Amino acid sequence: MIGDRHHDIEGAVANGVYSVGVTYGYGSPEELTEAGADALCSHPTELTNQFLC
């Protein structure tokens, strides 16, 4: 799950899905980390380089 707010990350955690918080959206890194994000990305290219096959 890729999300920019704590609601996105909390939904992923509740469903046992790996979550990536994106800091280029509305949420802060602290909000995403506190919600339980497995990883953080600060730019869309990081998603393709690190997480997508």
What does this structure look like?
The structure is a single chain. The protein is built from three helices and three strands, in the order E-H-E-H-E-H. The protein is α/β, with parallel strands linked by helices. It has one domain. Strands 1-2-3 form a three-stranded parallel β-sheet, sandwiched between helices. The mean pLDDT is 92.
Largest sheet: 3 strands, parallel
- In angstroms, what separates the terminal alpha carbons? 15 Å
The count of strands amounts to: 3
Structural class by sheet pairing and helices: alpha/beta
In total, the number of domains comes to 1
Structure at a glance:
With 53 residues, this protein is an alpha/beta fold.
Which helices and strands appear, and what pairs or packs with what?
Layout: E1 2-3, H1 6-14, E2 20-22, H2 29-35, E3 39-41, H3 44-50
Parallel strand pairs: 1-2, 2-3
